[in-house]
Amino acid sequence: MRLVIRGFLSKAGHRVTLAATGAEACAALGRSCFDLAIIDLLMPDMDGDEVVRRLRHGRSAQAGLPVLMLTAAIDPDSSDRVEACGADMRLHKPFRRDDLLGAIGRLTAGR
C-alpha cells in the first residue's frame, strides 16, 4: 500500500517519505518537517493511533501536523480509535486515487 500511495502522490507532484513501521514513522516525524502525515491505523510494532498520540502530545513543532488516517476497518472501535487519537481525517481502504488526493487537498489547503 505504501508503494501505491507513493506512486499516486509522486505523480501528483508531492515529495514522499515512507516509513514501514510506527517506530520509523515517529523517527521520521521527529527529524523532518512535513506538510501532512498519512498513517495506517494498523502497522507493525505500533499502531497508527499511537503514532498520532505521540505526535500530538510531543513537544515537536510537528504536533499540529494534519494527519490522514488510513484504515481497512469499519467497526465502531476503529472509528473511535481514529477520533480519540487526534487524526484530522479518516479514509477507508480501498480508496480511489481521487479520494486520496481530495483528502490531501482539504487537509493542506491554506498551508
From TrEMBL:
Keyword Membrane assigned to the entry: answer is no
A biological process term (GO) from this entry: phosphorelay signal transduction system
- Entry-linked InterPro entries: Bact_response_regulator, CheY-like_superfamily, Sig_transdc_resp-reg_receiver
Q: Which residues carry this modification: 4-aspartylphosphate?
A: D40
SUPFAM superfamilies the UniProt entry points to: CheY-like
Out of the domains of life, which is the source? Bacteria
Keyword tags: Phosphoprotein
- Every copy of the Response regulatory domain together lies at 1-108
What is the protein name for this chain? Response regulator
